[in-house]
Amino acid sequence: MSSSTTLTPVALFHPAFRRLGVLEVQEILDIIMSFLDDCGDLLAASLVCKTWSPIALDHLWNTLDSSYTDTLFQADWARFELYSRRVRNIVKEGVESSWGDLGAGALAQVVNNRPTSVPYILPRITEIEWTETPEAGWLLQLIPLLAPTLKSFALNVMSDATTSVTDGRVILRHLVFLPGLKLQRLQVGWLDPVPRLDAAVCNVLDYQKESLVSLSHQSFNLNKQLSTSLSQLPGLVSLDLKFTNVYRRTDEDFNSFSNLLASKCPGLRTIRFCIPFGPREFTFHAFRPLTRIGGLREIFLECGELDLKVQDFEEMGGSWRSLVALGFPDSWIPLPWFATIAEHFPPTLEDINFGIRVAEDLDANCTIVTAFTSLKRISYIEVASPKTLKAVGSFLRRLVAPSTVVECAKWMEQRLKEVTGNSVKWKGKWTR
Q: CB 3.0–4.6 Å: which of 79, 179, 258, 391 could bond 75 by disulfide?
């Protein structure tokens, strides 16, 4: 007699063999809940059944932002602990009064009443975005929220007071000594360059260099200490820097920095440099070494004064074969020149972010050979006179695919739609 077990028809209807419905699959429910932005909808979903409840509650408590007042933190600790495990993100920005009680007493009360058996208030926190306000003690309130599960940390110190600088250093020091921390994204910014805070950032970069993939510094002072720490991030993928004190810098300073990045951070895929208006004009020579980063997909150079030449685009297009987005937000390029440099763009380009200026006496011979069927967006077009609208529409109709979005001044939008029909998607976004 065979030892194999035969399932009877009755056994097949046992709960263990029941096929799950579509709305009982956790992965599908998680996707559906991610589209519910209203807290009331998520609360209602959590009351549907036991299957829906934990997933809906995870999305409901996923992010704590400035819309929450001290009500959340006045409940007893057991209830707070129940929901604190569902919090993944916490955002504190601006000086809204709704956060006053939280900063002054409510959060401190939770910290003081925390049982010794609970090492972290938010044990599953993954992202913190904190903008310091002028109120004393705000920054130090952030320390109890840190946990080893943290993946993304953003700290913006909006005050240059001595206490704010000191507290900022204390928080960054906690990131250095937090056991088991594997930080992936770091964003920092302050009103003016502060050497003590920059030194603390360097310590964080040194300790998190193996895991960090994204860095944003909104008051980057180009010096040896910061540059050396930055060059020791082999896994860096995204870099966003807003430079300060540029009036002391030259093309050679930025060229050396770009050369350092190209040599030490070959894995960079996105670069955004913001260089405010200054007393001197920079040339593309300052950033030419970046063309050696072959895998770069997005580069935005927002310079107050940047002298661009046709040969610069020739070199860029030949080097960045995988480039998807190219941006010079402060630059205006004449249409005939754009027709020339467009021949050197890589065929993978999807997003062009700089102005194209069309003069009243548009060159009738301004033509283009290559059509960019992959192009999805051109940031903005400026036309000096309505007389040139027909020529602009004809030119772009040959350049882009029907799905390409071309941003322009609002006064031009309707007229350009009449000229090009459905062959170009116009989007009015700004006025002169």
A: 79
Is residue 19 a contact partner of residue 8, using CB atoms and an 8 Å limit?
A: no
Question: What residue has token string 């072959």?
Answer: 294
Q: What is the pLDDT of residues 344-387, one digit of tens each?
A: 777 788 888 887 777 655 554 555 545 566 777 887 777 766 66
Distance, in Å, from the CA atom of 432 to the CA atom of 412, rounded to the nearest integer, reads 11
The backbone torsions φ and ψ at residue 228, rounded to the nearest 5 degrees and listed phi first, read -65, -45
Place of tokens 């754009």: 338
Separation of CA 241 from chain center: 12
CB 183 within 8 A of CB 204: yes
pLDDT tens per residue, range 128-175: 887 765 455 667 777 878 889 999 999 887 766 677 778 888 888 888
How many angstroms separate the CA atoms of 345 and 341, rounded? Answer: 7
Angle between helices 26-33 and 52-60 (to 10 degrees): 30
φ, ψ for residue 329, nearest 5 deg: -55, -25
226: CB partners within 8 A, 6+ apart: 198, 201, 202, 217, 220
